[in-house]
What we know:
Blueprint: H1 2-5, H2 17-28, H3 32-50, H4 58-71, H5 77-105, H6 108-116
Amino acid sequence: MWQILSGQHSAKEMGGPLKIAQLSGQVAQYGFASLLSFMALLSVNLGLINLFPVPLLDGGRLVFYAIEAIRGRPVSKRVQEISFQAGFAVLAGLFLFSTFNDLSGFGLFRWIASLAG
């Protein structure tokens, strides 16, 4: 994520479920060991993403625990609510963006444009 935000990699490289399915099919052609390695890599990546400090994820929960440890009292319910809503918006935006990238990569929008024009 940092490499995309800092411009080291293009945001078009970000893929979602469709890209994962496509890559899984390609990797499976190399054999079971390659597919198993790919699944392990996906699992580790998902675990790391889950530790991002976004309130809906476990990393966000850890941030709230750290704030509680420092302050000596929990964050107010209202702040948690707003944080969860913002976290949901961020995750929904990432999901929509990655799905848009997937569909663009498969040429769906070019195909629709060719039908219209």
